[in-house]
Amino acid sequence: MSGDRTSPEPTGPRTVVHLLRHGKVHNPEGVLYGRIPGYRLADEGRAQAETVAKFLAEHDVTAVVASPLQRAQETAAPLAETHGLEIVTEDGLIESGNLFEGQRFGVGDGALKKPANWRLMRDPFTPSWGEPYLTIAHRMFGAVHRARALAEGHEAVCVSHQLPIWTLRRYLLGQRLWHDPRSRQCALASLTSVEFTGTTMTGLTYVEPAGASDPTATGA
Description:
By secondary structure, the protein is of the alpha/beta class. The chain has a single domain (14-207), classed as Phosphoglycerate mutase-like (Rossmann fold, 3-Layer(aba) Sandwich), CATH 3.40.50.1240. The protein contains 4 helices and 6 strands. It has helices spanning 43-55, 70-83, 133-150, 162-172; strands at residues 14-21, 61-66, 87-89, 155-160, 191-197, 200-207. Strands 3-2-4-1-5-6 form a 6-stranded mixed β-sheet, sandwiched between helices. A hairpin with a 2-residue loop joins strand 5 (191-197) and strand 6 (200-207). The chain is globular.
């Protein structure tokens, strides 16, 4: 007689880690700003950050963690103030590295118009123009688990960036990491929430407290 091969139910405290994409950035040049310092939230982005803080005001948030970049820190500030917490800076939540950083990105009016840049597009699956998707997923996964441990039994908010959040979501769902950027479900100031029972992921949800936005907008 064969034994029972079913996996045991996960046990342990329920913890939720909310991955919050930062708000809209002041970017009059329309460049891909990536990890360049000094890109702050636009007025609309500050309003989006306040909206999310109000949305999560009654949640049991005991840790607010953010990418070191200014736009993420500014998005985290209203949340931290609402819950009386200090912001924990986490390098694992930083924007993805990109060799097009600082340039306008487009087929007709930007970096792709320059033949010298075409070599960077040779491998969209890794990708060849920036930090590998798998590297992004692994560092984000580590950051999320550190936040889970900080807020065990409660809720944590991790403020990060569009591509890292979307890459981690695909990784957690067992999907291929390369994708069409137009398909990303990660609006400005959106929440991708990962539920854990103990250390095991047991749920994932997505909401847009500040409304929808264009997934292909320059920046991230």
